[in-house]
Amino acid sequence: MIETYINESTLPFPFCPGCGHTGILKALDTALVRLQIDPHDLVIVTDIGCQGLSDKFFDTNAFHGLHGRSVTYASGIKLANPDLHVITLIGDGGCGIGGHHLINAARRNIGVTVLVFNNLNFGMTGGEHSVTTPPDAITVTTRRGNLEQPLDICGTVAVNGAGFAARTTVFDKSLPDLIADAIRFDGFALVDIWELCTAYFAPTNQFKKQSIEDTLDQLGFPTGVIRERTDRPEYSRAYRAASADQVGQPTLAPHPIDPAYSSDLATRQSWVIAGAAGQRIGSAAVLLCQGAILSGLWATQHNDYPVTVKTGHSVADVILSPDPVLHLGISDPDVMVVLFPEGLAKERARIARLRPGATVYITADLLDQHPVETAARLVPLDLGATGQQKSYWALIALAAILRATGAYPVEAFRAAMEQSPYAEKNLAALDAADNRTIRVE
Amino acid sequence: MKEFTNGAEAIARAALDSGCTFFAGYPITPATPILLHMVEELPKVGGVAIQGEDEIASIGFCVGAAMTGARAMTATSGPGISLYSETIGLAIIGEVPLVIVDVQRLGPSTGGATTVAQGDTQFLRWGTGGGYPVIVLAPTNVPDCYNLTRRAFDLAERYRTPVFLATDKETVASSVTVPLNAYENFPVRERTLAPADNGTFTPYRYHPADSVPPMAHLGGPHMVRFTGSSHDERGYLSKNPRDVGALNAHLAAKIDAHADEIALVESDLQDGAETLVISYGLTARSAREAVRQVRATGTRVSMLTVYTLWPVPETAIRAALTGIRRVIVPELNLGQYRREIERVIGEQTEKITVTGVHRVDGELITPDEIIEALA
Ligand SMILES: Cc1ncc(C[n+]2csc(CCOP(=O)(O)OP(=O)(O)O)c2C)c(N)n1
Ligand code: SF4
Ligand SMILES: [Mg+2]
Q: Which of A33, A51, B204, B275 is most buried per CB count within 10 Å?
């Protein structure tokens, strides 16, 4: 039987005479004594502010972090070890700067107990107003009266998924019961405890016990348990339940490629495949690279597309090399494959800069409709004549170009396709394409 | 045997192979693929990977989880590092083992989300108030992403500190050919824990100053005090100058006094060379290509690749400077690491000129640009 969780040798509490923080800590101790939680399984996470001094007085695990972020550490602790009881002590100031974490912890219904030391101002920094300062109240930063609407902390977490939300005052005799209920609750639980800062807010505003009750009335903020729901699972356990069938599955591992072909490629070649979103440019380029590696080459691939991925261009820069590739950039492509208007629009400038020795393979229709200026050799591809859907054009074009250039054996490209997710459809399209209709010299 | 893969996958695999059990991150180009891999993979090893409501929450989750015994990692880009800033300081003072991946993109601000850069070189070192040291590793390519992520976890445990992986959009997102034997394998470092039977546990006891206190986990056999405030060895807030001075001297010494042990460089020096190229991150690849081409013409040139950006591997840099008259430092910023090289050179007596090769237009530095500087 633990008679107190407070380490007597650390007393007295350092708070100003009459400060509400003292009462809350005593109520917390009473609640803990009632629950008899093994202090090894208990973590008290404190925020910043006068209430942030509290962890020192408890013979439990203690975690004291940054202003407004206590709920994030508490959540991380609970996520990593769901067996722990995690209690966060936070001020109204912390609930302001870290309100986002409060809302999201509530939305997750993560099993953290939050006790709000709500003294309507920043005590530690000298009585500035906080998100809960009542209307018209005077503070050092609201000298002509507070113009802001106070945040309903309790109501905010309640409407955003908190399993348990209660509001009361430090003067409430049943505060220890409420705290015990919150700690016992399996899910996110918050108790918004209104109290007095006897150094600043109370004297400046002649605020007393009765003023707290009057203000709650005026604001229409109810007290007591305002939300208790058990229909939502506690997050850290829900996460484990949802991923239980994953445990033990094989993790990400290399996909080794064993060279089974060979290539006579003597120097590094840069290929650019320029097309449109949704036309499987990137995946065709992957197969081009995998075929190259199957042929003993070294390949690199870089994709470029707009952030709005389903529209506009899709361009893959590929390097094929007999030696390891150091520098990744392609300033001077050897081969450009231009398939759709979006690809041409994106690459027109690079095409214009090409050397005479380079080759541009371009869809015949595209070339007819959009004249291209370049010193490179232009080779039209009559992909329309293959009768295949446009999403196969990149594969069909690459196979034809590999045959024409002999960069590496087209069989290696096919072998790469055989191992790919859509092997059957890809190969069927390639076989069906009448390669003779593609005019590749 | 080779594979076709990218840096994001290499980092995720290295994290798993390092015993990572916790990941939290907030989506941001170009770091998102790491988040996606971890969300997919960690449940398989009984771990947890979660998208936080923002970067502050994500790194906060990691710090909390690490103190329960998890090996934690997070990944973001420059804008996210800005939001991590305050918590990086918390991890330093609280002595939290944590791996932070920065997939750099062009700044400032939102900058170029899909554009490559090395603009966070100094930011990572000085990115939180107080000025205390951290460890920053910079991979030059995909196998380095694996090997240095493994090392980042190792160093985080060894020194109980946040360790950064300073990588970039290009290395993480581009797919490349990697021979499987380029991946290093070494045993995962066990976390040094306080013995369970050792009566009372003093969470921050270190003697001498550069030693690292053993940890105890929240929920373990000892009661633990963790704090982001200046504290005595018991973890109690202290303003006693003796406690505070000792703590801060310790936080500096445990990294700085071990700089040589932490240092990782690749010295590719040529006898009689008067020019030295010092590079890091993906720019080192262009530098290696440039050096290869210049040497092929019969010119002697030395090259030093720096993998540990911080602490600066000063001993290795000084060793590489022997006989050197000219140093070229190519980097994708306006000369952030050149400052460090100049600082180290400033201690030398002989006259050495230092020239930077810079780009901040989102394009890579080409080997030709470095060759031009070498001419
Ligand atoms: C990021 C950051 N901003 C500002 C501060 C300064 N600060 C310390 S305590 C505090 C307000 C605390 O008010 P509250 O949470 O209500 O706690 P109380 O002192 O009233 O118990 C502030 C703003 C800080 N520590 N960190
Ligand atoms: S300043 Fe206010 S909150 Fe802080 S201890 Fe004094 S009365 Fe309490
Ligand atoms: Mg307050």
A: A51
Last residue of a domain, one of B152, B182, B212: B182
Quick check: CB of A48 below 6 Å from ligand 1? yes
Between the CA of A133 and the centroid of ligand 3 the distance, in Å, is 9
Q: What is the pLDDT of residue B348?
A: 66
Residue B22 is inside which H or E element, if any? strand B22-25
Cα–chain center distance at B301: 28
Q: How far is the C-alpha of A14 from the C-alpha of A53, rounded, in Å? A: 8
Q: What residue numbers bound the domain in which B346 lies?
A: 266-374
Hey, what's the torsion of the CAs at A397, A400, A403, A409, to 10 degrees? 50
Number of domains observed in the structure of chain B: 2
Mean pLDDT of all residues in A77-98: 98
For chain B, the C-alpha Rg in angstroms (whole number) is 21
A50 CB within 6 A, ligand 1 = yes
Q: What is the pTM of this model?
A: 0.97
Tell which of A206, A225, A242 closes a domain.
A242
**Residue A379: beta bridge partners?**
A361
**pLDDT tens digit string along B98-155?**
999 999 999 999 999 889 999 999 999 999 999 999 999 999 999 999 999 999 999 9
pLDDT digits (tens, 9 = 90+) for B36-91: 999 999 999 999 999 999 999 999 999 999 999 999 999 999 999 999 999 999 99
The rounded distance, in Å, linking the Cα atoms of A18 and A421 is 71
Answer yes or no: is pLDDT of A440 > 80.
no
Q: Whose CA is nearest to atom 8 of ligand 1?
A: A49
- Please name the residue whose Cα sits nearest to atom 25 of ligand 1: A67
> Do B166 and B303 reside in the same domain of the chain?
no
The Cα–Cα gap between A317 and A333 comes to: 9
- For residue B74 the two structure tokens come to 């997070």
Contact B60 A81 (CB under 8 A): no
A84 touches chain B (CB under 8 A): yes
Please name the residues in contact with B102: beta carbons below 8 A apart, sequence gap of 6 or more: B31, B75, B76, B77, B78, B81, B120, B124, B164, B165, B166, B167
Angle between helices B283-296 and B367-374 (to 10 degrees): 50
Pick from A198, A201, A205, A207 the residue to mutate for probing ligand 2's pocket: most ligand atoms within 8 Å of its CB: A198
What are the structure tokens assigned to B91, written together?
């991890």
- CATH number (domain holding residue A25): 3.40.50.970
Ligand (nearest to CA of A52): 1
**Pick from A22, A155, A145, A43: nearest CA to A95:** A155
* Number of separate domains in chain A: 2
How far A296 CA sits from the closest chain B CA (Å)? 9
**Strands laid side by side in the B265-268 sheet:** B265-268, B302-306, B275-279, B326-331, B353-358
Tokens of A155: 């109501």
Q: Residue A389 class from Cβ within 10 Å (0-12 exposed, 13-18 middle, 19+ buried)?
A: exposed
Tell me how far the alpha carbon of residue A196 lies from the centroid of ligand 2, in angstroms.
Answer: 8
Q: What average pLDDT does this structure show over A210-234?
A: 97
